């Protein structure tokens, strides 16, 4: 199975890339942002026994990564179906 | 039953399991040997990937690395760096490489850059990366044997090599996949059981992830107490103290992330699932199974460190522990050399503090201490955990089996990446394209056997640089393989000259920087450009340089592409083709 038209192929790819860029921005923000660059600021906030920046660096970023991958897999499954490229 | 006997039984049982799997999962074709037949369930592949990925270093050393060498907060680079790479894999590489549907990473580079030269350069990069990595695993096998089973290092290594030989030579990727699944179960139980008990003992919470943010019996949050205890002794603050500059944390994390995404032995695991969709979700499952260990590790790090300090200097009495009163585990691990005590001021008590800091020196002057008296090896935080938490002997035996499982599973994955690049890319791809299926399968087994011998030799005679090799492997993968793959998928413009020049420039620049710090080929005397001093490039550490190497790779590839002939139309069509998720089945039977 392939795309119905050249336009479909282009549209599929640009939707994929824009979804990817959005998710990579979140990926960057939760790890490099919250865990490293903004860690000192976030560390002034205490959540339970955790300083927030430290939590992001050692726990939160990893949970966020998981959500990102499964969200991407699910959204791409939908996108594949929309353009009829979800066959074997 | 004594500990020794139980350890033999537990380790013996796991080894019998791995051999049983080997007999059951013999590879009958090259497709089974290289990609386990291509029909592995994505959850199962996720589990195998987790074991493939988590090495002896993750299992034995990482918690100690975080808590001790990197002082807590600095260790975040490993936690984020070694997990964040899976986001890159899931979105940027795995689905497309799966669609490409062939057997090795150099094969993709050779086809995409329409050049056997590119393929050979990729093989060379792959071998440099994987061999540096495998040395660490071989050492891990020897060390685990010598510490837990009281056989000497060399014998331990021979036993480990034999086990890997049995399932990797006969079963190839098929045998490796199923043993990795078993090894994951062993290693994750071995890691989490002691962690759960330690968390319960300290915070009353059975989940270490929550226990790390929990409170101690007296109501003080664990991390607050830990910060207090370590700063009182002159160490850097655990949760905020920087071990690395912000720039170094940034580039180090980036190097580990893109290095992860560029490691061939991890990438080839995604060739074993049936569809592109499965490749995406399988990366997610891999990270689920990895995250179970990686979110537990920082808890183990903090809790074990607090335990260590409070054993030596109990808060209740404020008096330092007398050497004569030290618990049994202390003397057990002293025998192995992981703990070293020297009574410098002759008071018969143990003083463990940072004698390099002003706060530590002031404390010493006040109390009459004559320097730090205890040397603690990083690995002890994981290895001695069950004894510190007073867990039964079978848990200690399980930790031994877990360490071995982590080392063997990663070694096998690396050996497959090495041997398939030799038999499939060099033999079949470059030297003997006429090779039939049966002979290629035979060559792949010979290459595997040869790779095990070489790895074993390097494990027996570890080069002086072996300690830092795992970190180096990431830098090299980040600077050579990752950019070539990413540009191959996302750009139709980058041509063969660009890719070849980029890979060579990336890996050479990274090696140059590392060697400049550590001696050419790690020979200490062969220094060059010493006048530049250490970390001369914006203060970036050698281990963190892979991200810079990757940038060099991207830039060189773009410039060289601009000066040479454009990519042929059929190759551009191929790039279009791998971006379409459907039609995998047809692509696979080549």
Number of strands of chain A: 2
The gyration radius over C-alpha positions of chain A equals: 18 Å
CATH architecture of chain B: Up-down Bundle
Question: Could you tell me the mean pLDDT of chain A?
Answer: 91
CATH topology of chain B: Sodium/glucose cotransporter
Largest sheet of chain A: 2 strands, antiparallel
- Straight-line N-to-C gap of chain B: 56 Å
Largest sheet of chain B: 2 strands, antiparallel
In CATH's first tier, which class of chain B applies?
Mainly Alpha
CATH superfamily of chain B: Sodium/glucose cotransporter
Structural class of chain A: mainly alpha
Mean pLDDT of chain B: 88
Unreliable stretches of chain A, pLDDT < 50, 5 or more residues?
Answer: none
Number of strands of chain B: 2
Low-confidence segments of chain B, given as residue ranges, are: 586-590
Share in helix of chain B: 55-70%
Query: What oligomeric state is this?
Result: heterodimer
Order of helices and strands of chain A: HHEEH
Number of domains of chain B: 1
Number of helices of chain A: 3
Task: List the SSEs and their pairings.
The complex is a heterodimer of chains A (88) and B (590).
Chain A: H1 6-37, H2 39-42, E1 46-47, E2 50-51, H3 52-82
Antiparallel strand pairs in A: 1-2
Chain B: H1 3-24, H2 30-35, H3 42-53, H4 56-69, H5 76-100, H6 105-112, H7 116-148, H8 153-203, H9 208-211, H10 222-232, H11 246-261, H12 264-267, H13 276-312, H14 328-335, E1 339-341, H15 358-367, E2 374-376, H16 380-383, H17 385-388, H18 393-431, H19 437-460, H20 469-490, H21 496-518, H22 546-563, H23 569-578, H24 584-588
Antiparallel strand pairs in B: 1-2
Helix pairs in contact in B: 1-8, 1-18, 3-8, 3-13, 4-13, 4-18, 5-11, 5-13, 5-20, 6-7, 7-8, 7-18, 7-19, 7-20, 7-21, 8-13, 8-18, 8-19, 10-13, 11-20, 11-22, 18-19, 20-21, 20-22, 21-22
Characterise this structure.
The complex is a heterodimer of chains A (88) and B (590). Helix content of chain A is 76%, strand content 5%. Chain A is mostly helical. Chain A has one domain. The longest helix of chain A has 32 residues, at 6-37. Chain B has 24 helices and two strands. At the A-B interface, helix 1, strand 2 and helix 3 of A face helix 5, helix 10, helix 11 and helix 13 of B.
């Amino acid at each position: 199975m392939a795309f119905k038209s050249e336009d479909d192929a282009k549209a599929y790819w640009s939707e994929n890339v824009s979804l990817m860029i959005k998710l990579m921005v979140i990926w960057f923000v939760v790890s490099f942002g919250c865990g490293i660059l903004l860690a000192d600021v976030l560390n002034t906030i205490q959540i339970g026994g955790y300083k927030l920046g430290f939590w992001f660096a050692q726990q939160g970023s990893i949970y966020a990564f998981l959500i990102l991958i499964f969200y991407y897999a699910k959204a791409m499954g939908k996108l594949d179906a929309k353009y009829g490229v979800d066959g074997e | 039953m004594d500990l020794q006997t139980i350890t033999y039984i537990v380790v013996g049982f796991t080894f019998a399991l791995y051999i049983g799997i080997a007999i059951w999962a013999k590879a009958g074709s090259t497709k089974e040997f290289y990609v386990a037949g291509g029909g592995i369930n994505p959850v199962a592949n996720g589990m195998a990937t987790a074991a493939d990925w988590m090495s002896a270093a993750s299992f034995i050393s990482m918690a100690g690395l975080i808590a001790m060498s990197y002082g807590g907060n600095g260790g975040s680079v490993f936690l984020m760096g070694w997990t964040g790479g899976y986001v890159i894999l899931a979105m940027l590489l795995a689905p497309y490489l799966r669609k490409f549907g062939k057997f090795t990473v150099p094969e993709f580079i050779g086809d995409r850059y329409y050049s056997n030269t590119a393929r050979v350069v990729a093989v060379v990069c792959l071998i440099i990366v994987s061999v540096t990595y495998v040395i660490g695993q071989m050492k891990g096998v020897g060390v685990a044997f010598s510490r837990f089973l009281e056989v000497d290092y060399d014998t331990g290594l021979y036993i480990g090599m034999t086990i890997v030989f049995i399932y990797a030579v006969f079963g190839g990727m098929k045998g490796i996949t199923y043993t990795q699944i078993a090894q994951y179960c062993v290693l994750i139980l071995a890691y989490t059981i002691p962690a759960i008990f330690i968390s319960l003992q300290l915070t009353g919470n059975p989940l270490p992830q929550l226990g790390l943010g929990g409170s101690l019996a007296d109501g003080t949050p664990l991390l607050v107490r830990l910060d207090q205890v370590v700063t009182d002794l002159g160490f850097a603050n655990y949760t905020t103290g920087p071990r690395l500059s912000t720039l170094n944390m940034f580039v180090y994390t980036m190097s580990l992330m893109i290095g992860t995404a560029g490691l061939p032995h991890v990438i080839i695991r995604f060739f074993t699932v049936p569809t592109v969709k499965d490749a995406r979700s399988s990366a997610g499952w891999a990270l689920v199974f990895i995250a179970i260990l990686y979110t537990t590790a920082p808890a183990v790090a903090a809790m074990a460190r607090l335990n260590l300090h409070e054993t030596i200097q109990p808060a209740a009495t404020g008096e330092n522990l007398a050497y004569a009163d030290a618990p049994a585990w202390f003397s057990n691990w002293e025998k192995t050399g992981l703990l070293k005590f020297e009574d410098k001021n002759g008071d018969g008590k143990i003083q463990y503090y940072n004698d390099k800091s002003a706060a530590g020196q002031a404390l010493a002057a006040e109390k009459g201490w004559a320097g730090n008296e205890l040397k603690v090896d990083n690995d002890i935080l994981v290895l001695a955990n069950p004894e510190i938490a007073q867990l039964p002997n079978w848990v200690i035996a399980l930790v031994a089996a877990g360490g071995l499982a982590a080392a063997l599973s990663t070694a096998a994955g690396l050996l497959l990446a090495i041997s398939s690049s030799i038999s499939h890319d060099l033999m079949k791809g470059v030297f003997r394209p006429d090779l039939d299926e049966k002979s290629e399968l035979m060559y792949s087994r010979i290459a595997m056997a040869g790779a095990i011998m070489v790895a074993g030799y390097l494990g027996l005679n570890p080069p002086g640089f072996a300690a830092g090799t795992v970190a180096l492997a990431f830098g090299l993968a980040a600077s050579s393989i990752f950019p070539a793959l990413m540009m191959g998928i996302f750009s139709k413009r980058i041509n063969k000259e660009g890719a070849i020049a980029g890979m060579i420039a990336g890996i050479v620049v990274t090696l140059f920087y590392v060697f400049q710090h550590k001696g050419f080929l790690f020979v200490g005397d062969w220094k060059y450009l010493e006048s530049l001093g250490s970390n001369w490039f914006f203060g970036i550490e050698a281990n963190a340089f892979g991200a810079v190497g990757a940038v060099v790779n991207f830039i060189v590839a773009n410039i060289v592409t601009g000066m040479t002939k454009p990519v042929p139309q059929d190759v551009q069509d191929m790039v279009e083709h791998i971006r379409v998720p459907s039609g995998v089945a047809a692509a696979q039977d080549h």
